[in-house]
Amino acid sequence: RTAARADAAEIAEILDYDFTNYATPDEAFFNAHGKAELLKMLERFDPAATAEASSLRKDDLAVFVAERAAEHRWAPDALSWRQTSSSADVAPDCEDLTDGDANPPNTDSEEPDSAPDLDAPPEVEAALAA
């Protein structure tokens, strides 16, 4: 799993892929987290807003953090292929997805696991070969 994530991170870097170019977490994502977690996430990308936000009710805080995340184009590291040295912004319910295998192999089947043959675009093949 670590090797696959490293390969994905390399491809993301080659392609200059950034999840936040396409989306940021929405209110529904933030509603799934407690108030303390929301304030901790907000502290990561907008420390100046943390004091103001601490007095908000949890539902209002989720909306506030979602709006600020969009303004700052922020997403938790768990939604990025890039390697990070810290998992401080990974929500507790996502930690097991970053540390373990989210799709364990099927041991009931006698057929070997195999990935489909995928051809990468020529520029990706060239960059990987360099």
Any key phrases for this structure?
single chain, 130 residues, mainly alpha, 7 helices, elongated
Describe the structure in brief.
By secondary structure, the chain is mainly alpha-helical. The protein has helices at residues 2-14, 27-31, 35-45, 47-53, 58-72, 95-99, 122-129.
Net shape: elongated
Output the helix-strand order.
Answer: HHHHHHH
Low-pLDDT parts are 85-107
| Main beta sheet strand tally, sense and closure | none
Description:
The protein is mostly helical and 130 residues long. The chain contains seven helices and no strands. Helix 3 (35-45) runs antiparallel to helix 4.
Set out the fold topology:
Blueprint lengths: L1 H13 L12 H5 L3 H11 L1 H7 L4 H15 L22 H5 L22 H8 L1
